[in-house]
């Protein structure tokens, strides 16, 4: 049993502004990878403030579910950066990680990111999460869209050196984004807890994360400007990220990827709708424990927070997606037995319970 997470986590309100010297000491030429929302929530302004006097380039066109082509494009545009800062949700942070590898190893293509034996180092990475959900600020994972499908890679070298976690950046998040990202954190915690790679270390973090999300997600949705509620969700998200840094994710993620790439369902929502099915298949002491945390009704909790999918999909699509999931690496760490038929049943469960 072990626990390895080399990222230094600095947590609290105004934590970026309070660590000017630490950030400045990372280098001279900084590349910020972000999206448009960082201008609205104040995160970009804070980071630019502390980098005053340094050379700073900003790429703020990161799309949701970034394709590998974007990563290569960014790396070619900013070849002289010696530090990469990812600001935002999972997409900008995961993009920043991938770019940091390509900048340090310019001979590589984005496809090479998936062959971890081809590289050993990346440029130093700093992450500033602005959503309470992805946990990417404390993991060695980057999920990109590769050949039209979401596909993650992992490497020790893309653990961020420092994560600056400040809940204030989530105060402007919409209800839709707040729900989807919190469900992503919930999926990380639940999947990590039941994973075959779980340890007593990761379990402690997972259970605390689940309890916090259960208590505070409904409260945030009812009172989105409440800073205490927002802080509790942010804490839960980072804990859940620490969990999957140890355990990885399970079949719910593999199932959800198809809804995201094919139907544009936000990642957290697309993943979380499969958790009730996965818990039923798992059917062990751990899955029973999770259900008990929700008064034996995770579905009841989903109804409380308004989980639904404004999509439809066909039997033919289910057949196609199930074949992809059957070959996913996630199954190796997922408890329970999954066949092509049971995977199809998972999609049918979601279609009948969540699709409008």
Automatic annotation (TrEMBL):
Q: Which InterPro entries match?
A: ADH_Fe/GldA, ADH_Fe_C, Alcohol_dehydrogenase_Fe
Residues covered by the Alcohol dehydrogenase iron-type/glycerol dehydrogenase GldA domain: 6-166
What UniProt keywords apply to this chain's record, in alphabetical order? Oxidoreductase
**Gene3D superfamilies with a match to the protein in the record:** 3.40.50.1970, Dehydroquinate synthase-like - alpha domain
Tell me yes or no: is Oxidoreductase among this UniProt entry's keywords. Answer: yes
Residues in Fe-containing alcohol dehydrogenase-like C-terminal domain copies: 178-293
Return one GO MF term.
alcohol dehydrogenase (NAD+) activity
Task: Supply the Pfam families for this chain.
Answer: ADH_Fe_C (PF25137), Fe-ADH (PF00465)
Checking CDD domains in the record gives: PPD-like
Q: What is this protein called?
A: Iron-containing alcohol dehydrogenase
Species per Swiss-Prot/TrEMBL record: Fervidobacterium thailandense
Lineage at the top is:
Bacteria, Thermotogati, Thermotogota, Thermotogae, Thermotogales
């Amino acid at each position: 049993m072990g626990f390895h997470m080399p990222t230094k986590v600095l947590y609290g309100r105004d934590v970026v502004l309070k660590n000017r010297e630490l950030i400045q000491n990372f280098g001279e030429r900084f590349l910020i990878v972000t999206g448009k929302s960082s201008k609205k929530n104040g995160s970009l302004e804070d980071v630019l403030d502390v980098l005053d006097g340094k050379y700073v380039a900003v790429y703020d066109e990161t799309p949701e579910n970034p394709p590998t082509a974007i990563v290569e494009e960014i790396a070619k545009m900013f070849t002289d950066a010696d530090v990469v800062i990812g600001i935002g949700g999972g997409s900008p942070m995961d993009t920043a990680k991938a770019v940091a590898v390509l900048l340090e190893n310019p001979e590589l293509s984005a496809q090479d990111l998936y062959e971890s034996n081809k590289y050993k180092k990346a440029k130093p990475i700093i992450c500033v999460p602005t959503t309470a959900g992805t946990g990417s600020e404390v993991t060695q994972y980057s999920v990109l869209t590769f050949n039209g499908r979401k596909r993650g890679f992992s490497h020790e070298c893309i653990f961020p050196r420092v994560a600056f976690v400040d809940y204030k950046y989530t105060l402007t998040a919409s209800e839709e984004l707040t729900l989807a990202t919190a469900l992503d954190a919930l999926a990380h915690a639940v999947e990590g807890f039941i994973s075959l790679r779980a340890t007593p270390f990761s379990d402690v973090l997972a259970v605390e994360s689940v309890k916090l999300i259960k208590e505070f997600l409904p409260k945030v949705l009812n009172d989105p400007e409440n800073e205490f509620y927002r802080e509790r969700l942010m804490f839960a998200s980072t804990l859940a990220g620490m969990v999957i840094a140890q355990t990885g994710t399970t079949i719910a993620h593999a199932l959800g990827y198809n809804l995201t790439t094919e139907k544009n369902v936000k990642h957290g929502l697309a993943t979380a709708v499969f958790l009730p099915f996965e818990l039923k298949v798992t059917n062990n002491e751990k899955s029973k424990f999770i259900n008990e945390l929700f008064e034996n009704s995770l579905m009841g909790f989903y109804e409380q927070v308004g989980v639904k999918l404004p999509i439809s999909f066909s039997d033919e699509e289910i057949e196609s997606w199930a074949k992809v999931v059957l070959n996913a690496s996630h199954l190796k760490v997922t408890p329970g037995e999954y066949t092509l038929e049971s995977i199809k049943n998972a999609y049918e469960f979601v279609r009948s319970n969540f699709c409008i």
